[in-house]
Amino acid sequence: MAVKKKTKFICQSCGYESAKWMGKCPGCGDWNKMVEEVEIVKPARKGAFAHSEITAGKERPKATPITAIETSQEPRISTDLAELNRALGGGVVQGSLVLIGGDPGIGKSTLLLQVSSQLARKQKKVLYISGEESVKQTKLRADRLGAASDNLYVYSETDMEYINQAIQDVNPDLVIIDSIQTVYHAEVTSAPGSVSQVRECTASLMRIAKTSGIAIFIVGHVTKEGSIAGPRLLEHMVDTVLYFEGERHHTYRIVRAVKNRFGSTNEMGIFEMKENGLEEVENPSEIFLEERSQGASGSTVVASMEGTRPVLVEIQALISPTSFGNARRMATGIDHSRVSLLMAVLEKRVGLLLQNQDAYLKVAGGVKLDEPAIDLAITVSIASSFRDKPTKQSDCIIGEVGLTGEVRRVSRIEQRVQEAAKLGFERVILPANNIGGWTAPKGIEIVGVSTVAEALQYALGG
Fold first, then answer.
1. What range does the domain containing 45 cover?
2. Each residue of 34-57: pLDDT tens digit?
3. What pTM does this model have?
4. Is position 61 within any domain?
């Protein structure tokens, strides 16, 4: 039986295939990402039956009305880390495929080894497959974390065929693959970590998860841009995508869900890295506000919703005269375009001359905010730094800003105000349309504003 070899070029960013090499990928526009791969094409066996002949004796399944389908609520597997359970939507779903991405050294393997130990102590069988460490190295890390258990099985392998066999032998409740970029399929000739290998290995793991009901966690490396390495198809194949974020030189880590078929997206869990592993942070608002400066201009506090949880964070702004022809606009944790838009609103609707001012904005604590409810806090912090007037330490500012300078209503205002009251804030400036229909906590003043100018009047006194 003759075997044909077919050469093709595949983009390592988006998976676009081409018969010839190109400098720029037509699919995603990236440069120098087309890599040559060899595909082995096996001809059909002589005398093989046609597909219609093979399936002739089988009963074809028919479409069923959705109202006639019986469902049962399957219990989730809960870990001892409530923050991780929240990000997963309430716990680990049996038969789910979860992708965890993050920078090297951020703590992905530490988190998963802790979860493995916790579930093993609950009499769940866990198979930890490492393609980057030997079993002895994994054991040393488990001893440091206190994660040893008889129900925790460790296996060091990168061949997908052996991994499949190990899963059948152990029959675990949870499988962890660390990492998917090191695993390879013998029938795919390209190198481990390539688009073809990652796609084929993930498809094999997905079939195992769905047919056997085993929950599988796979670790994915990230690129310089911060996205998970490999094609975007990888994120579409899995059920849940978690990003493990944080600065390596800081102790706090954030697990953020960006896709979840079994729960809410944009949920967030916060951990602190310590010598004995990761510990969950029960009150993240205190962490983000504990180092706030007293009486400094350009600082405001906003109550942002991270999924179903309100979190108070500090927004800092620094406005200074520019030394160049074009003013600079830099933002960390906030969309750069939103800063430019809000500065244009301040210049047009309030009369602040900002076109010759450099603007530097930052969300303290390394959190990324992308909801509209932070607009008003950004505008107040910019105006505070420009006028060099500090805001009150006891003020919390919430609201969306429109292009005409109006302050628009936001969602879940009651939860935001309750979080502010819990941390001792005495006044909340919020949209006037959000007042009514709910009861404010005792000891906190609610101020409703309709325009940005009115909000500045209350926050800065003019």
1. 4-54
2. 888 876 655 555 444 444 444 455
3. 0.76
4. no
